[in-house]
Amino acid sequence: EAAEAPKDEL
Amino acid sequence: MNIFRLLGDVSHLLAIIILLLKIWKTRSCAGISGKSQLLFALTYTTRYLDLVTNFVSVYNTFMKVVFLAASYATIWLIYMKFRATYDQNHDTFRIEFLLLPVTILSLVANHEFTLIEILWTWSIYLEAVAILPQLFMVSKTGEAESITSHYLFALGSYRGLYILNWIYRYYMESYYDLIAIFAGILQTVLYCDFFYLYITKVLRGQRLQLPA
Q: Where does it sit, as one GO cellular component term (chain B) (predicted)?
């Protein structure tokens, strides 16, 4: 699954 | 942040500004699909709900505010101020054929079954197909003003640059988001025939003529 990075993309 | 994503955001911002200026300056929204603009406003609204709860950076907040404001301003221009110039007869794509599959898919294929996550997923899938009414309208009218084709080129390029951003982030940060990547590839692929026509025709000063 995707890395749990915060949603930092627009 | 990387150069690909920055260029992508700038291209996206450019597209939105080009469209706003085109409608404002010519006082006309002829050839512009109001339906696509509605879908884009829905996309930004459901994606940027965390605008006030999740601060990422000044840049991030600034761009979200600009995208939201510009998309609603564009809708206001199309459906209110210059409503007389809105070409309703050619803006006939059935957006319910987009909203239903996008809604189903966002409920089935998401990272987490929470409201915020589902809405984010919904906005990602919706954005991938939001341009279809506009492309359909251009094919129906058989042509597009050159300013409209510049708008479409900038808008299509933005997500294409995001794909490069995702490749960069995969190798440099081991970060990837399959939902965003899948939808981003679909979104960019939808512009392919337009990109071909834009590069072979518009850049040579010819009008963008689509085989009707």
A: endoplasmic reticulum membrane
